[in-house]
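[09:14] KT: can someone run the structure on this one? pasting the chain below
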Amino acid sequence: MAAVRVRFFATFREVCGPGETVEGVEDVPGLLDALRARHGVRFERLVRDGREASFVVLVNGRNVGHLGGPAAMLADGDEVSFFPPVSGG
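[09:31] RB: done, structure tokens below
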């Protein structure tokens, strides 16, 4: 089980604050469960039951899509960042 530093950006920051440390997680789904327990329904609305397109997760600056997908494993000391989907033009 790992202790990871979590950072929140944009609408995630409005709901959860700038960041926190979460202990006792081993993968991204476990981290999501811990964050749901801490932040409740407002956080749940942001992640929409884990639908990949509803938010972006980076682990140590790398998109989880490049680290084995949404079920990426976490190691002690990792930094996990949450962003809303990005659009532009």
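[09:33] KT: thanks! The two ends are 41 Å apart (CA to CA).
[09:34] RB: yep, looked fine to me
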